[in-house]
Amino acid sequence: MDRIDFLRKLAVGGSFLLAGPTFMASCSKDGDTTDPDPGNGNDITIDLTDSSFDDLDTVGGYVYYGSMIIFRTGNDSYRALSKKCTHQGCDVTYDHSSGDVPCPCHGSVYSTSGVVTNGPAMSNLTSYSVVKSGNTLTIK
């Protein structure tokens, strides 16, 4: 084996060694066990006294929790939807003044029940049932 052939094989082998972990990591599943999702049959409970949920203290406030957006629509009225726009996966927001759930990326708009009211999204957001008892929200 001459010097040039050796350097070529070294470069090719080194490329595989550097790229291998990237390919292996891309096959793993992200967040399968850590992302709270009532869609898997487990109810989610939220303690409204936890400072992480301070934005839910006022009507119109919203928070992201796992794969959901939770927002306060009235005095004791809350909604929970999937936070990912069904068009291209951007996180939706909540606009209390219009009563809409807009996507800031491409202009899709959903109602507070998750129904598409303006495209380009074609599919509704998943909607979850929310029950308030004292300072606890239970999302099913």
Largest sheet: 4 strands, antiparallel
How would you sum up the global shape? elongated
CATH topology of the largest domain: Rieske Iron-sulfur Protein
Helical content (DSSP H or I, runs of 4+)? 10-25%
Structure, explained:
- It is a single chain.
- With 140 residues, the protein is α+β, with helices and mostly antiparallel strands.
- The protein has two domains: 1-30; 38-139, Rieske Iron-sulfur Protein.
- Helix content is 16%, strand content 29%.
- It has one helix at residues 3-25; strands spanning 44-47, 62-65, 68-74, 77-82, 100-102, 109-111, 116-118, 127-128, 130-133, 136-139.
- A four-stranded antiparallel β-sheet has the order 2-3-4-8, with no helix packed on it. Strands 1-10-9 form a three-stranded antiparallel β-sheet, with no helix packed on it.
- The protein is elongated and about 80 Å long.
- The chain starts with a helix and ends with a strand.
- Mean pLDDT is 83; it is low at 21-34.
